[in-house]
């Protein structure tokens, strides 16, 4: 969409829409966590990591929305970058084609995550970087978004726009970050619920798609 055709952003309404979706999403996620297994002998690692990814995604998304509501856009962007890493790890462990063909794939990676990756000492998993993991499970939407957030987080030119840009520029970054964060959380919920055999609730996918349509990407 040409810049001239991008609709004027109603920031107050965007915040209301994001808050409302997140509030309902928390209720939905808690319902999934309630019916997910909590312990299961040899599969404790799988259950632990699955629940952790879903819990962490939920909490972090809430913190991001709070930061954006408080106009702390850069903080929100940094949080969204981490949220995308959770989504990428979720897809790599629980959605990868090997998860369907090799019964030991998920358990192996969950144990590795707990033993190495989860300690914060190393962000590689199964010998692959975040980017390589993202490429292993198409589509690469998460990777494209992740790279964009990395540019904002680490590249001086892009960071400057978020930190000292105009009010309109900051609002544009905030709008995209709301949508990215809620979409990532909804996707993580869907992947985890599906893996553990919990009936999916498609209403969240519908609502986040509507949110993205109502507030299309503003920062190119």
Q: Your description of this structure?
A:
With 220 residues, the protein is mainly α. It has one domain. The protein is built from 10 helices and no strands. Helix 1 runs parallel beside helix 9. The longest helix has 29 residues, at 167-195. The radius of gyration is 18 Å and the shape is globular. The protein starts with 10 loop residues before the first helix and ends in a 6-residue tail after the last helix. The relative contact order is 0.16. The model has no long low-confidence stretch (mean pLDDT 84).
Question: What's the SSE blueprint?
Answer:
Blueprint lengths: L10 H25 L8 H26 L3 H22 L2 H5 L3 H11 L14 H7 L4 H14 L1 H9 L2 H29 L7 H12 L6
What's a quick, concise take on this entry?
It is built from ten helices and no strands.
Number of strands: 0
Mean pLDDT value: 84
Q: Compute the number of structural domains.
A: 1
CA-based shape: globular
Task: State the low-pLDDT regions, or none.
Answer: none
Biggest β-sheet, characterized? none
CA(first)-CA(last) distance = 10 Å
Structural classification = mainly alpha
SSE pattern, N- to C-terminal:
HHHHHHHHHH
Q: Which value, in Å, is the CA radius of gyration? A: 18 Å
What is the helical fraction, as a range of percent?
Answer: over 70%
Q: Count helical runs.
A: 10
Bin the strand percentage: under 5%
Structure keywords:
10 helices; single chain; 0% strand; mainly alpha; 220 residues; 73% helix
